[in-house]
Specification:
alpha+beta; Alpha-D-Glucose-1,6-Bisphosphate, Chain A, domain 4; single chain; 8 helices
């Protein structure tokens, strides 16, 4: 009679081991490190305390996919407590991420933005826009009209060549640093928006060089 043998302990353990489970990443995570509305998730995190992934999830949870631009922006500002300028940026980024508008498109035209953290006080950045001689050093010879200026926080500007709108917001970061955020609105086409996007990326970089050297 053949002698019975017991299954090996290794085999017993492998058969009794439960299959491992892996958690699927939430679909919203695809935008976690993305750039939306021309702004990186790191920049959004620095300015608002949360990155794109958090804000997209929060707006999804609120049902913002079914809302218009104004309703989303109001909710972002009033309920999510995002500042006025950044609530607009978060809204545009959300609409882009969820396919509610094409890149750079807003109500009333196309819009682009650029931002830069500068190792100088907010007052210095404000003067770089308000003072025509200093402005020419980094912006060039383009003619603008400053409609409203709130020192050292913001400027509302008309771009004279095409009567489009430029909003500048300056956020102090302590006594010696600030963030400059530029938004150019009412651009007539996607092609013009792409051109202005590249233009402002270069100009805020030039602004940083002029002020820091």
């Amino acid at each position: 009679m053949a002698k019975k043998t017991k299954p090996s302990a290794r085999r017993d353990r492998s058969q009794s081991r439960k299959p491992s489970r892996t958690r699927a990443k939430p679909s919203g995570n695809r935008a976690g490190g993305a750039t939306l509305a021309g702004i990186s998730s790191d920049a959004v995190q620095e300015a608002t305390g949360k990155g794109w992934y958090h804000w997209l999830r929060a707006l999804d949870k609120a049902g913002a996919k079914a809302w218009d631009h104004k309703s989303i922006a109001e909710y972002a500002h009033e309920t999510l407590k995002i500042g006025p300028w950044w609530s607009q940026m978060v809204t545009v980024g959300y609409e882009q991420a969820r396919g509610l508008r094409v890149k750079h498109q807003k109500a009333g035209g196309f819009s682009v933005s650029a931002s830069k953290t500068i190792d100088r006080p907010a007052a210095n950045a404000f003067r770089a826009f308000a003072d025509a001689a200093l402005r020419k050093r980094w912006l060039g010879g383009d003619s603008i009209t400053i409609r409203k200026a709130t020192k050292p926080r913001s400027l509302r500007i008309t771009w004279d060549a095409d009567q489009t709108n430029v909003d500048v917001n300056i956020y102090p970061k302590g006594a010696t640093r600030c963030q400059v955020a530029v938004q150019h609105d009412k651009l007539p086409s996607a092609a013009k928006a792409r051109s202005r996007k590249a233009f402002w990326a270069g100009r805020v970089e030039a602004l940083k060089r002029v002020l820091e050297t």
